[in-house]
Specification:
Helix content is 8%, strand content 57%. By secondary structure, the protein is mainly beta.
């Protein structure tokens, strides 16, 4: 198959990376909400229109992820599922585009910075004369690729704010369109389900990016 090699490589990385990055027995989960602006570029032929690119529109993303180290080491491997909704318009708001895609995602986080990616054959598209979240139709025979990067600022040990940028490329019959869907978003991340055993059991439950309490909370930074 055309995409066999990348898929096998991704599966191999999923098997190896947890053992490279996992320290003592510790783990955690997090919900992540993102919202911002996106732009669909090279909309034809994916949307069946002649528009080469579009204006900006709102983007909304939701993720649930599992951390294999629970904030215990600087380099952290994370695995999860992310749903991305990207919209934009052309012709002075006369035509509205939308792409909805659920991605199995892989992330690497180094302290406050993270990078990630995903691939999915499941996506929906929308072409309409008014904005909305209705009239999405499933696309067959397409493969969508995601790459992303972001920065986090810990507000509390289990809640962080941040910013992220992402690009999605859709391949249909060997043709890339859109290429890409660009997004810039604000990030809200909520950690939960910390699990610590062994040597890490006595340590506090905090995110990787948490470096200690800061103003306005009034406590000193941790060592």
């Amino acid at each position: 198959m055309r995409y066999s090699a990348p898929i096998y490589l991704a599966i191999g990385l999923l098997g190896v990376l947890p053992w490279i990055t996992r320290p003592a027995e510790a783990s955690s989960f997090y919900y992540e909400l993102q919202g911002g602006l996106g732009q669909v570029r090279s909309a034809s032929p994916f949307f069946g229109t002649d528009a080469p690119s579009s204006g900006f529109g709102p983007s909304f993303n939701l993720a649930l992820a599992y951390s294999f180290s629970g904030g215990e080491i600087p380099l952290e491997f994370q695995l999860g599922l992310q749903s991305r909704l990207s919209t934009s318009s052309v012709d002075n708001g006369m035509t509205y585009y939308g792409v909805l895609a659920p991605y199995p995602m892989v992330r690497l986080q180094l302290s406050q910075f993270f990078i990630g990616g995903g691939v999915t054959p499941v996506l929906w598209r929308r072409v309409a004369t008014s904005p909305g979240v209705d009239s999405f139709k499933m696309v067959s025979g397409s493969l969508s690729f995601l790459s992303e990067a972001g920065f986090l600022w810990a507000v509390t040990p289990t809640f962080s704010l941040g910013a992220a940028a992402a690009a999605q490329f859709v391949s249909t019959g060997g043709t890339l369109s859109p290429k890409p869907i660009l997004e810039a978003t604000a990030v809200l991340r909520f950690y939960f389900g910390f699990s610590k055993k062994g040597a890490s059991a006595s340590s506090s439950s905090t995110s990787n990016e948490f470096k200690g309490w800061r103003y306005p909370f009034g406590s000193d930074l941790k060592d």
